[in-house]
Amino acid sequence: MTNIEKYYNKFHEEHRLTTRHGQVEFRTTLHFIEEAAKMVGSQNGAGSLSTFSAEKTATPLKIADIGAGTGRYSVELCHRGYDVTAVELVKHNLEILRSKHENIKTWQGDARNLQFLDDQTFDITLLFGPLYHLHTDQEKLKALCEAKRITKKGGIILVAYVMNEYSVISYCFKEHKWEQVAQKGGLSADFHTICTEQDLYDYVRLEDINRLNAAAGVERIKIISADGAADYMRRELNEMSEQEFEAFCSFQLAIAERPELVGAGSHCVDILIKN
What we know:
There is one protein chain. The radius of gyration is 18 Å and the shape is globular. α5 (72-79) links the parallel β1 (62-66) and β2. The chain starts with a helix and ends with a strand. The chain is 45% helix and 17% strand. The chain has a seven-stranded mixed sheet with strand order 3-2-1-4-5-7-6, with helices on both faces. α3 crosses α13 and α8 (137-150) packs across α11. The protein has 13 helices and seven strands.
């Protein structure tokens, strides 16, 4: 069993995106998935349930959710009328996903090798978990290139990353672990984290993402902050009234594309097109 499998067998993945800080990330990301669907759907006449239910002959968009976890996105997108295929490495997570929705096609597999999925099959491909855990450009590129391979020409790939500055602020300084991390050689002179295969996560900066995109030959449409300050404000979010929390979610959606804020939160989502 890999370190990732051991971790997710214990980690309450089902709960993470239902917390208030998780809801901010989930709701913001769904907005941009739907935006991508409208872009692709305008090219081929397909779309979400609200689009194709009015025209019975239209075909729903095909979405691949690679690293689907317990299916938070897969299930919601299936409910919205998309044709969803989910791939998940961890058997425990996959069993939970399968128990939720029988109409989702599921595979147990590694994002770096999707040989069971055909070339140019999907209108939209989500790569929301795998690049958190791959530690070298070479390994990340395997997953990114596989996502590109299975996506149709003109299709859209959404890729999530965990961000370097969030990890340094929240772990090194907020939790007072700077000295421990520095002593083991976990930080460069300019405070970029230096992760090894023994570390569960790998953290990136925008220049790292740009380098991967250039190597994979994909073009960016936009890059967004999925959660902004939400992960820094867990207690404050929990203290908010429903009305105030709704206002915060609207605030995050309004600022998600601001270039001065992308990279400052815990996650960003890179939205790419396959030309």
